Amino acid sequence: MEKLNSKLYLENCYIMQENERLRKKAELLNQENKALLNELKQRLAAAAAGTTIPDLNLSGSTSAAATKKSKK
Hints:
This protein is mainly alpha-helical. The chain contains 2 helices and no strands. The longest helix has 48 residues, at 2-49. The protein is rod-shaped, with a radius of gyration of 21 Å.
């Protein structure tokens, strides 16, 4: 019984570590999403103020995000 408890305790510890890792990753993704949404809103507002259609494919922050993702 004690062996089973030890095994379950270790498994629980691993699960908690993985949850923390995933929580941090989710927070980073959330921050990136907020930054991209803000950039999109700015581009759309600028387009509404002018007559040009924004090129959503060209972006400094999105290429930086792609670079971050490629490093992982």
